[in-house]
């Protein structure tokens, strides 16, 4: 390519950037106006709801449908995710709690779901995230609920039994673990590997093959593991890209998770119910009396209505020895007539039914 052609393309890019800038500014002014209308139309005692997950899901899906490349749909949606995130911050900056410290996969999930313009607040434990949201100190919380390799995150399920919060969204994150070392680590003398117990489990086979005799130490988070390695010359950490960058560690071995599709699903918890988008999921907790065939009976109404269940987990109910509750996720919104019918029947058969929330299927 000649200098002349390069120059011409750069002039074109400058002119396109000017148009994009003008359009983004116009869009931001529209969002400000939306914010003003939301405030002006409030009834007495009502609080303005600026964040609208159902609308955000629609915007992102529409962009993916309209996109003709060369950027792929996910990349394009991610750009719009950030534009919307900054537009929302003009209406009202969102505060979101996640499982800290900084650099955890939970923080990555929060930023993936809400965009970089949120104010994210690290919490020390899952239960604290629930409490922070319940107390109104933050608008939303992001909690891990299941991992494709290791299964349910029981702390999160149990917290739903203790708090009255609503699930307003979900986000799935591909989890790539790396073996990280600090500048002063003697890599041939590593005698200890720190990580969260879940991450150690997700890399078990790799560790057995490469570091069979090295002590594995479970700590409260991957980011905490990364932090510790900074000051120890004989240890390494298993954590992700964010932690590596934040704590200035280098990657000794990358993508060491045993399963290449290793992913974690996170839930967004808050206080606001979300209207239907036409592509939603619902999560419920059901307790049944302790009798033979209880689970079968509970599933009949879902089957009869053709509702597609995506997950069932069982947890001790905490209200009696050997009694259990079922956490069930399925496609559909609680206001869909078919879902409403099925839930009415389930309520009749069960001892207790609690709808944790209906929310848009994860777009990104
Ligand atoms: O449509 C709205 O209600 C808006 O506030 C605008 C907007 C956007 O930028 O598109 C911003 C934040 C909401 O979460 C959803 C959408």
Short synopsis of the structure:
The chain has 364 residues and is of the alpha/beta class. It contains 12 helices and 15 strands. It has helices at 3-40, 53-66, 73-91, 105-114, 126-134, 154-162, 197-202, 204-210, 222-229, 241-246, 294-304, 337-349, and strands at residues 95-99, 119-123, 140-147, 151-152, 166-174, 178-181, 192-196, 215-219, 235-239, 250-253, 263-270, 280-287, 309-316, 324-331, 352-360.
Task: Please give a handful of descriptors for the protein shown.
364 residues, alpha/beta, D-Maltodextrin-Binding Protein, domain 2, 4 domains, six-stranded mixed sheet, five-stranded mixed sheet, 12 helices, 15 strands, 41% helix, globular, binds prephenic acid
Description:
The protein is an alpha/beta fold and 364 residues long. It folds into 4 domains: 58-92; 94-175 and 262-272, D-Maltodextrin-Binding Protein, domain 2 (3-Layer(aba) Sandwich); 178-256, Periplasmic binding protein-like II (D-Maltodextrin-Binding Protein, domain 2); 273-360, Alpha-Beta Plaits (2-Layer Sandwich). 41% of the residues lie in helices and 26% in strands. The chain has 12 helices and 15 strands. Strands 1, 2, 3, 4, 5 and 11 form a 6-stranded mixed β-sheet that branches. Strand 3 (140-147) and strand 4 (151-152) form a beta hairpin. Helix 11 runs antiparallel to helix 12 (337-349). The longest helix is centred in the first third of the chain and has 38 residues, at 3-40. The radius of gyration is 23 Å and the shape is globular. The model has no long low-confidence stretch (mean pLDDT 94). Prephenic acid (PRE) binds next to helix 1, helix 2 and helix 3. Prephenic acid binds at residues 31, 34, 50-52, 55-56, 59, 84, 87-88, 91. Residues 1-95 form the Chorismate mutase domain. Residues 95-271 form the Prephenate dehydratase domain. Residues 283-360 form the ACT domain. One of its GO terms (cellular component) is cytoplasm. Its EC number is 4.2.1.51, 5.4.99.5.
